[in-house]
Amino acid sequence: MSSCRELISKLSKCKHIVIVHHWDSDGISSAALLSRIFNDRELSFLVPKIGLYSANAIDLGNLAPSKNTIIILLDYGLPPDEVIRLRRMVDSEVAVIDHHVNEALGRLFCNPIALGCPEDDYPSTTWVLKEILDVSGHEDLVALGVIGDVGRFIRSYEISSWVNDVCSKYGLTINDLIKASGIIDTCYRLIDYKCIDYAREVLTSKSVREVLRSRRLLGKYLRLREEIAKALNNAEVTDVDRVIKLFRVNSDSYITSCIGRELARKFKDKVIVLCHEVRKLGMSYIYVRSHKYILRHVLQGLKSKGLKVGGKDRVLVITCRNNRCDELDTLLRTLKLYLE
């Protein structure tokens, strides 16, 4: 973890920090956490193009690089070659703080999972920040990021007692954190960047409780629930074999992971494969999730075949090269190989 210590030392000397954060509740909570801790610095925030994981997805057009600026890729599981490409594109230093399965990159790189730590020990990027920074007074944001990534499965994690203690301290419940996470995630699912910025500002200047009270955010949340229900009702399903169930949905919104999680909860002893064309993004994805099976070797196998894929032990997402999702056949063959 020496690279994490080096990164923190670097941050303490920088006047301008550019935070490029993921669009989900863990990424937004992590950005708000850094905003609170480094409130004496000049901070800028960028959200990559939703659904894309590449250097080109980050709009650095208005950034004025300098020796006193550092760019942090926060909870944004950018492939190593794309991180290297981004470092070549800018004059500022580029650092990574993350918890997704990836390859280590050396200096200014803080990802305990990539550095060999067990995935369950670092369930969120907010938890990584907790381990390397003083988060006293901001533990609610840490807990929100954790719940955003693991949900109700927090009960199976060793840190569940810590999360419960935080809930007691801040007058929250696990259900409050689950709902707040869902409300915040509404922003990216509706592909609403202004909503993402607003949610981050609420967490930075107010609290998790204020997310639950926000009429602006709650209105979007209710609209999204209707769209998810419609997509689930219209999903086409195929039993590939005794383990794999294949679903196809169409929606204008980026609700891939939400639908995938619902299906995985319904079919806990299966591997769920979801093909989703997000028309508003002009992109298609294949989402794979399982409560029963570990998918790490599948993820590694797909990466070795050159697919654009990211994920963790029980979930992976393929970004398709076209709306036909030609990668589906390769995925199904790889799943069958590793699940035999």
Structural key phrases:
6-stranded mixed sheet; 44% helix; 11 strands; Diaminopimelate Epimerase, Chain A, domain 1; 5-stranded parallel sheet; inorganic pyrophosphatase (n-terminal core); 2 domains; alpha/beta; 340 residues
Report on the architecture of this protein.
By secondary structure, the chain is α/β, with parallel strands linked by helices. The protein has 2 domains: 2-218, inorganic pyrophosphatase (n-terminal core) (Alpha-Beta Complex), CATH 3.90.1640.30; 234-339, Diaminopimelate Epimerase, Chain A, domain 1 (Roll). The chain has 13 helices and 11 strands. It has helices spanning 2-11, 25-37, 80-89, 125-132, 139-150, 160-170, 174-189, 193-205, 208-213, 215-233, 256-266, 296-304, 327-339; strands at 16-21, 42-46, 69-74, 93-97, 109-110, 236-239, 244-251, 271-278, 283-289, 309-311, 315-319. The strands form 2 sheets. It has a 6-stranded mixed sheet with strand order 6-7-8-9-11-10, with helices on both faces. A 5-stranded parallel sheet has the order 2-1-3-4-5, sandwiched between helices. Strand 8 (271-278) and strand 9 (283-289) form a beta hairpin. Helix 2 (25-37) runs antiparallel to helix 5, helix 2 (25-37) packs across helix 8 and helix 4 (125-132) runs antiparallel to helix 5 (139-150). The model has no long low-confidence stretch (mean pLDDT 92).
